[in-house]
Amino acid sequence: MPTPSTPSAPSQPDRRPATRRSALKAGVGLALGAGLLGAAPAAAAARDNARPPVTGNKKNARLLQRGTPLCDQPGDSASSQGLGSGDLAIPYYREHDSSWGYVFGDAWTGIQQTDEYIGSPVMLNQANFDSSGATPISFTWAQPTGGRARQLFDYQHRQNNGYGDEISRIPNDCIEFGGRTYIQYTSVATWEPPAGYDGSLMSGVAYSDDYGVTWNDYPYHWPGDTQGTNQSMYGMWSFAGIDPDGWLYIFSKRWNGTHVNTGDGGAIQLFRIQPNDFRDGNFGAQQNWAYVNNSWQWTKSAAPSAILSGNRIGEFSVKRIGNTYCMSYFDVDDYSICTRTAPRPDAAWTAPTPQIVGNNTWPASHWGKPQTPYLYGGYIHPGSASATSLTLIVSQWNGKLNEPPYWVLQYDGINP
């Protein structure tokens, strides 16, 4: 385990596209100028890279998804549930009935940014997931059950809902255990924060006791930028799951859903809490993984230390797959979805491996990788086949008014 100040990923020159979220500043989206990506391929090539599955490993005749779009296709399973276009699609296991949920961020009824805006977050569900990769994800029903896709939380966009002005509430992760479903989210105050600020209002945890139909908010919120706590390390969470040791392990970092947070620094921290304390909203019962007196230890007397740092990180995901902890994230500076692994959440993590890249001609570490321009997200499916064959859900956005505003794409067989 490195000391808290040790960078774990060297920076690369910045070749990223402009933030997707700037298109939402008018509520339904604005077109961005041409040339967002410099030498990266155009939007048409991006769509071509996101077409139906191709043959995978011929040795075992597996058919893997390699950027299969899960929405934005007229007549697809998402549109049949009332969702034409959306991003994130964070997957989680619905343990009460062994089905699967997918939590979207901003969503529309159609595939144009001029179509009706549904809101954020939005949930679609799936009865059965094929971890082999032979069959792409297909959505079976939307929340509320038997209805059409709609915003899960009861709040108004671009209004003060009692905490200060907020634009949208963006989900970061979802988990179900003990008959309750939890979504951790960030309330966004601005998508265009000044340099050095993260642009968040607050972060919070909402819960549902009817498996996603109705939601309540825990009364405690972690203050964000516009509430006086800029760069809070509790801005974005990922639920790694309940370990066999009985603890719920949670990773968290600064809010960087904008992908432009200059203060992000790639820092990720780790804490754990007993599931019953979490359910009760007793968040003060958490134990922190901290570097104290020249050693790493679990403690309640010190704040969590950064376990990783380096390049800026956007969306991230940590899941226990088999006996291995797997991490994926959007490396903003490297312009790629990277993965790492560790035998335990509090053990040393492997070096980052780029898996899906925005430009596979540069740098050399990207050569031969699957290319998806305008990418972000990169969530690990908890039903992945194994720790050496992950399913990742990757988002894509090209920022153009007359194109689908968001895609979510399925990639299988990822070996971290």
UniProtKB/TrEMBL annotation:
Keyword Signal: yes
PROSITE patterns: TAT
Keyword annotations: Signal
Signal peptide range in chain numbering: 1-45
Domain DUF4185: 74-411
Domain of life: Bacteria
Record-linked InterPro entries: DUF4185, TAT_signal
Sections of the chain in a coiled coil: none
Residue numbers spanned by region Disordered: 1-24
Species lineage: Bacteria, Bacillati, Actinomycetota, Actinomycetes, Kitasatosporales
Protein name: DUF4185 domain-containing protein
